[in-house]
Amino acid sequence: MSVTRSADVRTAIEGCRVEDATPVSLDADSIPSTAPEGLRELQRELDADDLVPARVVVDACFGEDCSFATQAEADRVREHVRAASFLGASTVTVEFDGVADEAKVRPALAAVAERARREGVNLDVAGPITLEN
User: Are 109 and 74 in contact (CB under 8 A)?
Assistant: First the structure.
C-alpha cells in the first residue's frame, strides 16, 4: 500500500476553493432522527444556516456488565456513525466514563470502528478504553 497521494487526489486538493461555511460538532442527542428523511431535513437546516457537520459526539454508557446492554449501546453508536456518514461529518467521537467489563466493550467498539472505517468516518474513542489501530 502506498503512503503517497495519487495525482488525482493532489489535483482535487489543489482545485479546492474556500467556502463561507462554519464547521460544527453535533451532539448525537440533538439529532432528531437517524432515519434518512430526518437526516435530510437536518442537512437542509444546516445548509440554510451555512453550517457544515464536522463531528458527531455520542455520549455512551457502558456501565452495565451485560452483553446485551453493551451490544445495544454499540448499536446505538453505530447508528450515529451511519448518520455522520450521511451528513458528511468526518468524525464520530464516543465519550464515556466508566466501563463495567472491558472484555465486552472493547470488541463491540472495535466492530463499530470497522463500520466507521467502511463508512469513511473516523471513530474517536474518548474514554478509558483505547482501540488499537
Answer: yes
CB count within 10 Å of CB 10 equals 11
Q: pLDDT tens-digit profile of 81-115?
A: 999 999 999 999 999 988 999 999 999 999 999 99
pTM of full prediction above 0.90: no
Residue in 81, 91, 83, 93 with CA at minimum distance from that of residue 41:
83
Instruction: In whole angstroms, give the CA distance from residue 40 to residue 48.
Output: 12
**56 neighbors 89 (Cβ within 8 angstroms):** yes
Is the confidence at residue 1, as pLDDT, over 60? Answer: no
Q: Please state the three-class secondary structure of 41-81 as a single string.
A: HHHHHHHHCCEEEEEEEEECCECCCCHHHHHHHHHHHHHHH
